[in-house]
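Run log // design_07
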């Protein structure tokens, strides 16, 4: 695997992780970067940089972000967002990997891209449930803002500095997972 392919895989995985925070933010960032000519994707994914796609991703992002600020709607969105994040993570990873066979591209995308998106989404679902249990849902807007920031930073970082962004995302996931496990243990006691 050459360096360009390795960077593409890191960028795809960083974008996939961002899909676990917010499904449409990474796709919007990709669409903007493609539309501006700052990003190149695998054949068949150029549609993501078109004006209709940019409008669709902008609208979907606005609705998703807004929905997470409405108490209890955020939990409903989590039930929809979990499978959607896995699909989106698979798609963004597949779109970034250009110099490999289609079989390898989609295998990496499904296993690694969908897997990391699902892991991040699962961690945020658990953290949101803990927030709801401990604050009665009053802390969820703060949590939604942190998730939105994480999605934006991870998305931009995955395009600008893919290796660093991927390492940061993995570190944040690990940190959040430890916090959730410790909090669940404390609440259970």
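design_07 sequence
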């Amino acid at each position: 695997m050459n360096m360009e392919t390795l960077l593409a895989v890191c960028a795809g995985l960083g974008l996939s992780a961002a899909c676990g925070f917010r499904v449409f933010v990474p796709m919007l960032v990709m669409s903007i970067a493609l539309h501006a000519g700052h990003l190149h994707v695998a054949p068949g994914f150029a549609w993501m940089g078109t004006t209709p796609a940019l409008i669709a991703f902008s609208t979907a992002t606005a609705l998703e972000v807004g929905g997470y600020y409405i108490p209890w709607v955020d939990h409903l969105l989590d039930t929809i967002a979990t499978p959607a994040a896995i699909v989106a993570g698979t798609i963004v990873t597949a779109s970034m990997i250009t110099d490999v066979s289609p079989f390898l591209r989609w295998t990496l995308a499904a296993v690694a891209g969908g897997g990391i998106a699902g892991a991040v989404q699962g961690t945020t679902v658990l953290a949101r449930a803990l927030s709801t249990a401990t604050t009665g849902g009053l802390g969820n807007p703060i949590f939604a803002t942190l998730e939105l920031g994480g999605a934006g930073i991870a998305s931009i970082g995955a395009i600008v500095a893919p290796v660093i962004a991927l390492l940061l995302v993995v570190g944040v996931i690990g940190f959040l997972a430890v916090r959730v496990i410790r909090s669940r243990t404390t609440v259970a006691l």
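The chain has one domain: 3-188.
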